[in-house]
UniProtKB/TrEMBL annotation:
Transmembrane segments: none annotated. Keywords: Oxidoreductase. The keyword Oxidoreductase applies. InterPro entries: F420H2_bilvrd_red/Heme_oxyg (IPR052019), Pyridox_Oxase_N (IPR011576), Split_barrel_FMN-bd (IPR012349). Residues 11-128 form the Pyridoxamine 5'-phosphate oxidase N-terminal domain. SUPFAM superfamilies: FMN-binding split barrel. The lineage of its organism: Bacteria, Bacillati, Actinomycetota, Actinomycetes, Kitasatosporales. This is Pyridoxamine 5'-phosphate oxidase family protein.
Length: 134
């Protein structure tokens, strides 16, 4: 696999637009991994993930922003490493629209009474892609 700091090529961008799930790995306070499948959109060179504000992933990111993301197909891996930030208000309209178009889902809507939504915005530090290993 190769490290790429820039935007992935057209084939990977197409997968990012079409695939429904990505595995998100965050770091627990004890240093162990927390891995969970999540819905996402990739827009403006960033991964966007909606979550409940009290979720394990949000608590982990609050303390340690480094994350990894991996698309589900292990034969043709697409893995990104990056830094996540939490957006608690004023979700970007284009991201909300992208979730609606991709999933028919309002990423802003609470999943249970009294809960609040946050957006995870992941800036990629490097891509690890299949087919480019030396």
């Amino acid at each position: 696999m190769s490290d790429l700091a820039n935007e992935p090529g057209p084939a990977v961008r197409l997968r990012l637009a079409e695939e429904k799930n990505v595995w998100l790995c965050t770091v627990r306070p004890d240093g162990s991994a927390h891995v969970t499948p999540v819905w996402f959109v990739y827009q403006s060179s960033r991964w966007w993930i909606g979550s409940d504000h009290s979720s394990v992933k949000v608590r982990n990111i609050h303390k340690e922003p480094r994350v990894s993301l991996a698309l589900e197909d292990g034969r043709f891996p697409v893995v990104a490493e990056g830094d996540a930030s939490l957006i608690r208000e004023e979700f970007p309209r284009e991201v909300v629209t992208a979730f609606e178009q991709k999933y028919g889902w309002d990423v802003c809507a609470p999943t249970r009474p009294g809960s609040k939504r946050v957006l995870l915005e992941v800036h990629v530090r490097r891509w690890l892609l299949a087919g480019v290993a030396q």
